[in-house]
Amino acid sequence: AAELDGVARHYPGGVRALDGVSMRIGAGELVGIVGPSGSGKSTLLNLLGTLDAPTEGSVRIAGHDVGALSDNGRSALRAQGIGFVFQQFHLAANVTALDNVADGVLYTGLPVRRRREQAAAALRRVGLADRAGHRPHELSGGQQQRIAIARAVVGDPALILADEPTGALDTASGEAVIRLLRGLHAAGAAVVVITHDREVAAGLPRRIHVQDGRIAADERPAHT
Amino acid sequence: AAELDGVARHYPGGVRALDGVSMRIGAGELVGIVGPSGSGKSTLLNLLGTLDAPTEGSVRIAGHDVGALSDNGRSALRAQGIGFVFQQFHLAANVTALDNVADGVLYTGLPVRRRREQAAAALRRVGLADRAGHRPHELSGGQQQRIAIARAVVGDPALILADEPTGALDTASGEAVIRLLRGLHAAGAAVVVITHDREVAAGLPRRIHVQDGRIAADERPAHT
Ligand SMILES: Nc1ncnc2c1ncn2[C@@H]1O[C@H](COP(=O)(O)OP(=O)(O)OP(=O)(O)O)[C@@H](O)[C@H]1O
Ligand SMILES: Nc1ncnc2c1ncn2[C@@H]1O[C@H](COP(=O)(O)OP(=O)(O)OP(=O)(O)O)[C@@H](O)[C@H]1O
Ligand SMILES: [Mg+2]
Ligand SMILES: [Mg+2]
Question: How many other β-carbons are positioned within 10 Å of the β-carbon of residue A19?
């Protein structure tokens, strides 16, 4: 589970990306985050994923107070159980698709051969087994996004944080990605998805609405 | 006007991004390009924008055979009249939003002060006048996309090529961008938009469908 309590995130020059945000994501929950451009969605996800620290308030992940952990403690927490799909993919440039995905299980200490086997299986799940040897600049925008998704899920993490995972995808490819995330949720992972796709958002059992750095609504539609 | 005739674009290793593509975009036309991830849309747009060269066939822009031009000739053609919104934005990293947009009229030779005035006006049109001093890493995904759009339109080019211009935007911000592009079209520019957003595609007077590197359909719905 992940919990924010009275969290703010400000930047120099008076930008208040988040203010007074308190929320809880339960183990195994499927949650959407929606809101206008610049409202604070990615900032919220980065804090949940221990990739950023709050200006005020506290973040607890799996019971740990993230602020009290060392840098190493935070990376260990991430490596053990958080898969992240970045909004701008952040793939390693001169590295093949296979090795970009294998990086997702770097922390396991498994030998490279075993990690690449897991990576090849993840590439098959996103429909790109035949491009394992290509590097990011040799792939289309949507193909790169699917590599980023494969890297996030290859280690079967307990918490998956996905920032607009269908942003670069056509409807059919996007639906396949959402099916993949739903499958991981069904298997027990907590999945948090930022999306501006109305159809994707409508299909989620809970939707947190962010507006000007605050939580404007936390919608749990009945019996979806 | 822009014209492709028998165009193919292949990559080493047997990837056939485009094959046998012939099409024409008239001066002042508004056209959509749709198709699955990896089908060849960005490749097509890069060829139309003289940013890439075909493996076979010819590309003519405003009557010039692009293959017969020198590198300088091609950049002059681009600078004089083509505005490009890249799928991955490609903003200059340590440069302010204002100067990123001012780069869109670098070729005019106008003094920096004048270029920055034009850039400030373009930033206002995309709703980001208050972030002129921020650099790309200080802006959200959608804000960066809007900077990229402002840079493409700041010089009032005759041809605007936009690769998923609403991909990182919520519905309202996306609609504002489409209104901006429609306004430029109404003023006489030719506008070509790659999109996987069903609503955006449905509103365009012509839709070119790309599938596995070929034009599968060229839909000109009557009386839209
Ligand atoms: N440098 C390259 N080397 C090898 N293959 C490439 C290269 N650049 C592009 N491709 C391939 O060409 C095909 C078409 O790519 P393109 O970027 O045009 O697709 P797209 O329709 O824009 O897809 P998307 O919707 O995912 O952005 C893809 O299969 C892609 O992997
Ligand atoms: N380093 C920074 N310095 C200043 N402002 C920043 C910085 N990083 C983010 N911001 C601002 O914080 C606000 C929230 O950004 P965030 O990336 O969370 O938005 P978002 O909801 O994800 O938007 P989008 O839908 O466009 O991706 C924005 O106004 C953004 O410009
Ligand atoms: Mg974001
Ligand atoms: Mg593309």
Answer: 18
- What spacing in Å lies between the alpha carbon of A18 and ligand 4's midpoint? 32
A75–B contact, CB cutoff 8 A: no
Mean pLDDT, residues A42-54: 96
For residues B39 and B210, the answer to whether their CB atoms sit within 8 Å is yes
Burial (CB count within 10 angstroms: exposed 0-12, middle 13-18, buried 19+), residue A214: middle
And the tokens for A142?
């949507």
Residue A63, Cβ neighbours under 10 Å: how many? 7
Q: Which amino acid is at A79?
A: A
Contacts made by residues B99-107, CB under 8 angstroms, sequence distance 24+:
B100/B136, B100/B147, B100/B151, B101/B147, B101/B150, B101/B151, B101/B154, B102/B154, B103/B151, B104/B150, B104/B151, B104/B152, B104/B153, B104/B154, B104/B155, B105/B154, B105/B155, B106/B79, B107/B76, B107/B79, B107/B80, B107/B155
Place of tokens 């919104």: B85
Average pLDDT over residues A11-25: 96
- CA A38 / ligand 3 centre spacing (Å): 7
Instruction: Identify the pLDDT of residue A108.
Output: 85
Asked if B14 is an interface residue toward chain A (Cβ–Cβ < 8 A), one would say no
Helices (H) then strands (E): counts for chain A:
7, 10
Mention every residue, 6+ apart, whose C-beta is less than 8 A from residue B168: A37, A87, A164, A167, B141, B142, B144, B145
